[in-house]
Amino acid sequence: MKFASRVVPFPQQNIDTDQIIPARYLKTTTKEGLGKVLLFDWRYDQAGNPQPDCILNRPEARGARVLLAGDNFGCGSSREHAPWALADFGFRALISTSFADIFRNNCLKNGILPIVVDSSVHARLFELAASDPQAEVAIDLDAQILRLQDGSETGFPVDPFAKKCLLEGIDDLGYILKNLSIIIDYEKINHKDM
Amino acid sequence: MKTVTGIFFPNCCPRTLPDRKTPASRLGPGRDNCFLQIMLLWYFIAMANTLFDKIWNSHVVVSEPGCPAVLYIDLHLIHEVTSPQAFTGLRARGLPVRRPDRTKATIDHIIPTVNQRAPVTDPLAAQLVRELENNCRDHAIQLFGIGDPRNGIVHVIGPELGLTQPGKTIVCGDSHTSTHGAFGALAFGIGTSEVEHVLATQCLLQSRPKTFQVRIEGVPAAGVTAKDMILALIARIGVAGGTGHVIEYTGGTIRALEMDERMTICNMSIEAGARAGMIAADEKTFQYLARKPFSPAGAAWDRALSEWRALETDKEARFDKTVDLDAGQLEPMISYGTNPGMTLPVTGRIPDPGAIADITRRSALVKALQYMGFSPGNPLLGHPVDVVFVGSCTNGRLEDLRAAAKVLRGRKVSPRVRMMAVPGSRAVKSLAEAEGLDRIFLDSGAEWREPGCSMCLAMNGDELKPGEYCVSTSNRNFEGRQGKGSRTLLASPMTAAACAVAGAIADVRKLL
Fold first, then answer.
1. Residue B13 has pLDDT above 50, yes or no
2. Contacts of B125 in chain A (CB under 8 A)
3. What residues in A contact B131, CB-CB < 8 Å?
4. pTM for the full predicted model
5. Under CATH, to which class is A2-158 assigned?
6. How many CB pairs under 8 A join A and B?
7. Do the Cβ atoms of A126 and A148 come closer than 8 Å?
8. Where exactly are the structural domains of chain A?
């Protein structure tokens, strides 16, 4: 996972998953097509018309694969529809100072990389995005390096198992299924079998 | 409970101070042995486990270095919103549900709270219902569906049915799964992908969280309830204060709470960012679970009791974080902003963004106050209210309805207010009606509805009009949560009832 991209800056803190995808859009039985309703109430007015000021509606957002978000992004509900909407919109990585636990986990399972940076790097990224919206960041998952728009670099943490899964295309479920016989033994020993 | 070291070293020198009457030779072991005792004390501390440790350790199936643990899941609860894609994924892989006997389903998020016998009119909602019904039938999963007397909100019916038990690992595709931790279980919310994993394997990959003790002591004043305690905690530690941790609630105040109240506290642990919330089981827990449909019975009950009694945090165990709360200092709380951390005592005034140094936090407050239509410095009390909602997995149980009814009895809901009482399950509704609580709500002018998640997240048609203020006993006040432009004021059932009568934010203590 190595790519360069413009960033879409979205500075609000504590963006919860109700905002990322309001509950009225959870009545879907698939994972596709939710990009249209991503951050709906930020992007559309009461009548449903797109707000021209919202960065996500602007041409710069199209094709950008990195969302630069405020602190504690993704707090609230466990709805996996939130990363599905982000992925469908086109995002492959999110940058913030912190992500809520369940949301971060859900992102990793959907091929979206949550990147945690410290507050000074965070502020720098916003400044650089404001001064040149076309400038790109570069992400190298293997080296765990984020290159900012001005060429400076910073490392970011990634859970080693999540990294392995993302890089090798390993599926969590595949890993658990490999251990099926041990699971069956556990059930027998603990009197949890059928 | 005796300390571990006390059992082995009753005369350990720190516990026996020299005095003139006791010759030094009688004091016990000398200095070298003192060092040994300190080392052993540290050993016992290291070996001492919290309630969370005990449940986690007994459920790890596989633990390879550098990988999250494979954790066994005793009980998997599912509902109509977060399961369809999981079953689709299962079908795509050609996998069966491995343990249908450990999987239980309900319909709660989209179920209407009136005319439940009529077909669901919203076509998308109807499709969700059909999918769950078909999936449960195809995989032989027990579904407490529409019309079933056991139907209700997933986190209300689990305990009611005795499915929730101490020491179990319990998951559901819903963040308020932490509710079940009130029974000394390890219960947490998962995403739809993980729902698929559990369906396929009855296991989950999980990284071990840290532990956080919240000790609550003191006697709360009349009108101060469990809801106020958890709101006060979130106000104190913030909506990310518990991130990465499982919270265990301890202390005399917690022990004094009834099961419904303990569930309120564990329910909202997620709003503090915690992975889960737990309260160790005790006699109240056992009494609640005795003779429930899925509780053990006969000899199995006696065996279960002795296992359950051992499930508590060891005295020497250490938590990664501890916070103390004095319940005697608390007041009835209400939220004024757009996350569950933005709350104040009802007697408070809207905060002033100008007093906040940090630019991002200041602009967040400005935005929240703008959304809510509140002005800095104004008192909360007396602000007009349009709707009052009593219900949800946080406060939709019998004790909650009793508490609201106590305030409503002999009083009328203000003519400007629409009040809705939504019992958390069919069983809660029946029990409430047997006590005449429905009559109290109806006589006061409130609506008495059928069970469901309802206005908590407005997926079923129960929603606010833009700009309406709603005092809600639910758990989230995010922008648009109860309908686009909705303005949620989180509070306890007692406070909600007081606000309904006043037609405005009110202090329930004045009515008691």
1. no
2. 27
3. 29
4. 0.90
5. alpha beta
6. 166
7. no
8. 2-158, 169-194
